[in-house]
Amino acid sequence: MEIESEHEMIIVGAGPAGLCAALYAGRSELDTLVLDKDMPGGQLLLTDTVDDYPGLEDVGGMELARAMTDHAEKFGVGVARGEVTSIERDEDRRFLVHTADGETYRSPVVIMTAGGSYRTLGVPGEDEYRGKGVSYCAICDGAFFKGEHIAVVGGGDSAVEEATFLTRYASKVTVVHRRDHFTAQAVLEDRLMDKVEEDEAEIVWNHVVEEIEGDPETGVSGLRLRKVKTDPETGDVIELDETRELPVTGVFIFIGFVPNTGIVGEHAEHDDAGYIITDSHMRSSTPGLFVAGDVRSQLVRQITTAVGDATTAVFAAEEYLQELREAEAEGEEPHWPPAEDSPEFEAQVEVRSGEMSPEETGRTPATAS
Ligand code: NAP
Known about the structure:
Structural class: alpha/beta
Order of helices and strands: EEHEEEHEEEEEEEHEHEHEEEEEEEHHH
Mean pLDDT: 91
Bound molecules: NADP nicotinamide-adenine-dinucleotide phosphate
Shape: elongated
């Protein structure tokens, strides 16, 4: 196999976590390759306005993406276009990073920051009104809907938790769910039901969104909903011959988030939802594989947490590179705590695998999407 190039570090993904990792790698003068399948920025490119990044009260997502990219480039690390399809580890403790166009890059360290994607409804109006009333992030966009009637779609933890969160801004939150019950944790459902009792929220059971309606200038004006029922045998959703209009100015869609973890395959231990588990140094279960940002198992997924993860990951990776050099000179294995008998890593696996709830661990439950 021909190796296109060798580096000290390869960063997979150029969202806020990848770009921050690139910045610190550049400052540390590490020979670093950053690969992203699209232009740099990740989910920032889908975000109209960012108003929760400290010091930047109101910045366009695109603008912040460009600023982060320029900042990393200033320290000598640019982003190369390349869709990483798989990562394997050779016998010499080096990763082989393969891309869709057939290239292979080699490095002792990979920082995985490939994020994930929000599952979308795929209905008319969803793409058209994205950022104009269609949102996938309550923390990012909730404040834009102060005093307005909005809808939340979904029936899992995210939808139920975020609907409750959004009542602090909206005059009313209508949750649209395709079943007649939620699958969210009881504690989250209880909190939403309190809001229903207080008339701040309502639930529309057994309906799906058929179309998001609006105006290209002013954005979302309503939803067309279709009544459905669940097939008792198969559990399939069956559409019925009845529709209704729901006049809302915003719709928050929480029907699942898919982490882009497939490319690391069996190299990293996952939680039940597929996110990669790390210790506090962002070390995964495989030596040399660090993880930062939305692809990592954690309570909150924000730009601020992504850059925090990335900062830690680069410093920890630098330490690992030093230990690797020393260990190899001595003909020994480098130190990698998560790999074996680390109480901290085991505790993370336990928490992240759902064996302990956030309440049991004393953590504040996540409000982020
Ligand atoms: P999820 O648990 O997969 O729930 C997705 C919801 O969206 C389900 O109600 C599903 O309905 C519905 N749905 C899926 N596709 C749909 C479609 N095309 N149209 C309408 N509805 C659709 O996803 P999530 O709520 O984002 O949670 C993801 C993971 O994060 C879970 O493991 C969750 O426990 C975790 N999480 C935890 C917390 C917390 O602990 N505080 C908070 C948020 C998330 P069906 O049931 O009909 O498929």
